[in-house]
Design a protein that fits this description.
Blueprint lengths: L9 E7 L4 H11 L5 E8 L5 H8 L3 E4 L8 H14 L4 E4 L8 H6 L4 E5 L11 H7 L4 E8 L9 E8 L6 H24 L3 E4 L2 E4 L2 E2 L13
Parallel strand pairs: 1-2, 1-4, 2-3, 4-5
Antiparallel strand pairs: 5-6, 6-7, 8-9, 9-10
Helix pairs in contact: 1-6, 5-6
């Protein structure tokens, strides 16, 4: 039973394509009541990935929707939306979901879908972000959490965390360093949403009724 001023527990659908490290961080955060949410379903576009096993071990419903069964991207997204709607999800979390979603799908979940991207957007949307940062001589990288819009990796940024790039780094080392930040920053942002503190309005991210700047929440020492 919820207290009078406590937000209702949110139902979350998580979309994955692989290992599921961010998924596991979200599962743990929900299990420890850090996030006021229930992960209702985990959906993958690939069968037999580790993320599905993580979800099953946690007692979460899983589903695989394979692209080979839906040659048209629009048909795939309709099947995905139908499944998420069956679970009455309040929030869709992309956690390494390696598909570009159609505008119709994105618009259906406008303001209710989050993504985490392994670069300091607007730098390096798309793939191979860490190698691109190395090739460009960057001295830092990081991750960006944003609301999803029809523009690839272009939605309003909510939070960015930064890591250094050292002279002897390769892309794998940077990826490991960035992933360690993802595992704490993504649960924090999902917590904000589930506590009704975070919304998308006028194509901007708003936290506690204040619009965030173009790089999201500016304080690197963000607290709860």
């Amino acid at each position: 039973m919820s207290l009078p001023n406590q937000p209702q527990t949110k139902r979350v659908g998580v979309l994955i394509s692989g290992f599921g490290s961010n998924l596991q961080a979200l599962i743990d955060a929900c299990n420890h009541d850090y996030i006021n949410a229930e992960i209702a379903v985990v959906v993958s576009n690939k069968a037999r990935v580790t993320g599905l096993a993580r979800a099953a071990e946690a007692g979460i419903d899983t589903a695989v929707i394979s692209a080979k069964d839906y040659p048209e991207r629009s048909d795939y997204d309709r099947a995905l939306a139908s499944l998420l709607d069956d679970y009455s999800v309040d929030l869709v979390v992309l956690a390494g979901f390696m598909r570009i979603l159609t505008a119709d799908f994105v618009n259906a979940y406008s303001g209710r879908m989050l993504n985490i991207h392994p670069s300091l957007l607007p730098k390096y949307p798309g793939l191979n972000t860490h190698q691109r940062a190395l090739d460009n001589g960057d001295t830092q990288s990081g991750c960006s959490i944003h609301f999803v819009t029809a523009e690839l990796d272009g939605g309003p940024i909510i939070l960015q965390t930064k890591v250094p790039i050292f002279a002897d780094d390769d892309a794998q080392l940077i990826a490991q360093r960035v992933n360690s930040q993802e595992l704490t920053s993504y649960p924090l942002v999902v917590k904000w949403f589930c506590d009704d503190r975070l919304v998308m309005r006028d194509n901007k991210a708003w936290l506690d009724n204040q619009p965030l700047g173009p790089c999201g929440y500016a304080n690197d020492d963000a607290d709860e």
